[in-house]
Amino acid sequence: MQTDTREKTAQLPQTVEPRNPGTDLDLDWVMAAQANRSAIERRVATLPGRRTVKKDYQAAWLCRAISCIDLTTLAGDDTAGRVARLCAKARQPVRADLLDALGMQGLTVGAVCVYHDMIAPAITALTGSGIPVAAVSTGFPAGLSPLHLRVHEIEESVKAGAAEIDIVISRRHVLTGNWEALYDEMRSFRAACGDAHVKAILATGELGSLRNVARASLVCMMAGADFIKTSTGKERVNATLPVSLVMIRAIRDYYSQTGVRVGYKPAGGISKAKDALAYLMLIKEELGRDWLSPHLFRFGASSLLGDIERQLEHHVTGAYSADYRHPMG
Amino acid sequence: MKEIYDSMDYGPAPEDASEALAWLVDQGDRFGHFIDGAFTEPGNGFVSKNPATGETLATLTQASQADVDAAVAAARRAQGKWARLGGHGRARYLYSLARLLQKNARLCAVLETLDNGKPIRESRDIDVPLVQRHFYYHAGMAQLMDSELPDREPVGVCGQVIPWNFPLLMLAWKVAPALAMGNTVVLKPAEYTSLTALLFADLCRQAGLPRGVVNIVTGDGAVGEMIVTHPDIDKVAFTGSTEVGRRIRQATAGSGKALTLELGGKSPYIVFDDADLDSAVEGLVDAIWFNQGQVCCAGSRLLVQEGIAERFHDKLRARMQSLRIGNPLDKCIDIGAVVDPVQLQAITEMVDNCTEGDRFSVHAQLPAGGCFYPPTLITGLEPSHRLMQEEIFGPVLVSTTFRTPGEAVELANNTRYGLAASVWSENVNLALDVAPKLAAGVVWVNGTNMFDAAAGFGGVRESGFGREGGWEGLRAYTRAKGRRRKMEKIESNTGENGAVDGIDRTAKLYIGGKQARPDGGYSRQVFGRSGKLLGQVPEANRKDIRNAVEAARGASGWSRTTGHLRAQILYFIAENLSARAEEFSHRINQMKGGRSGEKEVEASIRRLFTYAAWADKFDGQVHGVPLRGVALAMREPLGVIGALCADEAPLLGLVSVMGPALAMGNRVVLVASEPYPLAATDFYQVLETSDVPGGVVNILTGTHEGLAPVLASHLDVDAVWSFSSSDVSGVIERESAGNLKRTWVNFDLVRDWYGPAGEGRDFLEAATEVKNIWVPYGE
Predict the structure, then answer these.
(1) Is B537 in a helix, a strand, or coil?
(2) CATH number, residue A222
(3) Closest chain A CA to residue B53
(4) How far apart are CA A267 and CA A284, in angstroms?
(5) Which residue, A164, A195, B1, B568, has most beta carbons within 10 Å?
(6) A17 found inside a domain
(7) Which 3 state secondary structure label does DSSP give A165?
(8) Total structural domains within chain A
(9) How close is the nearest chain B Cα to the Cα of A128, in Å?
């Protein structure tokens, strides 16, 4: 009965998204950005009532969520062994028998995300998997070390083999409205990344308002960010749907002005399969199907995978699952 | 699985309809009426169809006059006892109904969607929760009636006719306040969508509601007509089209029935260039693509600031592409079915006949066999275009542009309707400046289609009158306690021609702050009680009314003055009247005979003080609506009020209507006491010395029977009041149907101008309109 109202466009398999070259800083555009919190909250609050996926569709969507996970460990007590275990999970995120039952053999997560010193063990553990290693950088999480050291840290991580660099912006530039400084900082980070893709962490929980989130998003994209990312996972408030809506609308605006697709990564606080579906639906509704791929969308998460595994086992067996039935990462 | 993984489609998510269909089967798929606590045997009838599929859901019975009589009689029998049950007793029943509605929420939602075609998301997440909320809220109002409304009593038996766009919700809006205030009801659901009303009847039975308190009869417009014209109905409440509302106004005119109408609209949706454009686009989805656009307050007229128009329209068209149309029972559907093929055809014809502008429709494959219409945007229409003026009542948005805030307000108000409006701006100064200027009963700032039982809903102009919800909504279902007797027409004194004592004083009309000779050039002699000639007064005609209304319309600055200033002027009038008290009391004594003049002048001075006192104290409210934000219930003046002043109290009667009208910021056209007009013509001299701006008060003399229909039919008058002893109540109500102006007439019942009935809240409420301005906030 229902119809898909989207215009049918040929979806070519596009393995590599052209990178965002950035633009000049357009302050008129930045300052025109608005974000009405109440209206934004209404939109995200009603979305789960407007869209849902059931049965096979739900399972397929959850597999898609897995493919977009940046499986992450960012703890002071990380060791090579801990990272190796995580990488093994990245290669085989769901029990093989379940993937067989689902017909989703070969499913992996999107990337593994670690601190600089863990890049080498991660690369070793992921050899041959095609899974990239992402490194947090630039004095993560506060980003308050000297600028030249932050730039140098990027260069070191790239040299160590990280294919993706998650940088943190200087929140103070946003809070004081110093958009030029933010732009210049991001430009220098982007340059330091070379061929590695750069994700700009806005630390939205520390930016004070959704309008600031919108403006910071635009500035970082103008300065060449490949991805914009909500949080370090260390702020008091991390990824939320309202913040996500603001950021992806900024991405949509940037796309409509420049024709360049910038990726989006919500991070921190997403731990339930249901939440992951809500994010995927929000992306599909606001940005479209094209963004539902690891090239343009990632979850920064550590415990989300466990809940998805249980849901998938439930889908396959019809019985609710338990966490100990799934191998640790 | 892999295929879905690649396509990332949503897939089907149908709501299970089996419980609702089983309920229909349990009822035999055939329904009678619900009268006196029981269902009648199903009779000759019509079928109720699912508009999404065309399938028949049940057979319903067309009510006969005998059925309606039985329902009204049952309601009448039940009413006294229901009222005497007391607020708490009624609160228990309303609470029980709220609970039952909650326990049967899914059944209500699915049945509503089957019957109406609206997406299950809407019936489940919006309609049915609001229905429950209205019963909870009004359970509370029943509880509080005894303490908070001690001077009010139930109106009696209410006849309620509701539309098909929100079948159960409109029932709740009508039934809950009526029952709370001690009334009983005879309700007719719309012919297309009667099933949830019948389910509600079943719930009334389960709640043990005393029989006869709620009666539901089904059928077409003929049944509605039987209800609204039934002699034993005390109050009529109607929600539906302006056309039918107008006919109901005419049909009930002069019957003494109270009336509230909630009618059509062409509500503006104003987007300023500093708005959060993406949120404003999303708001439009809830404004015009909510319930397939079949919403009386739908934001159907987009006004967007010129500089951002192109970008905004682009964003809007992109958003429209992701709207999903289809089976309303599917949980992923945004746009369901239009209620009936008749409506679908009406929408189709209106849009197809539009050859101007740029039309954009979502290219969707519409399901076969149902009433589906694609979401449509027509840009570039001028205000003069038919589609910019008339309600389409479908998922069709029309759009035009404006340059300045002032022009936005002008365009927004360039309509016969005045139901709702949306204003989008991130500038609080701009939004809160524009909101009060919009001719609408409800204004949403940075939002749309927000409803709650605590905030009144209703319109101005031809969108009807009366409010549903909030404290302001209770007025329609209560009346002042006490019985009043009929009055006789007071005839003018007669006498012999002769000379007037002293220098001849020529009384004139008072229009636009100037004394004016009557257009017709005729005067009438005024005699004293003793038969002595006291003077002549002009005989005003329709052109004098026209001039007076024009002057009043022009004095719009008065409505923007502060309450403090209006108080100062009312006090000043009192002061100047006091200085001439002796002259006025002598004049009254001459006209009326006896010695009541002094008392009347004294009472008039008091009354002016009363309204000077009220001018800056009749506060609005901030309603406790469930959102982070406020709903400001602002009391606004009606505009231009025409009043036929009481004959029996030539000065006090005039002051008693002028006072509240002026205090609340209205301008008035007053027709003086017909038999005793000289107090009014003396009074304009008091006004002239009291700093009353020209045009704010206009005074005419003449026959009430002659002037009442002219005032009542004048399309630029916002309200007409009559306390005349002439039999003009009926003609005023009938003639008011032209622009559906508010009327307040006495039905020839006596009012004690010296007692509490002569002043106070009733007058202030009649002189104001409650506008609810919703301001959600948050940084």
Answers:
(1) strand
(2) 3.20.20.70
(3) A1
(4) 18
(5) A164
(6) no
(7) strand
(8) 1
(9) 23
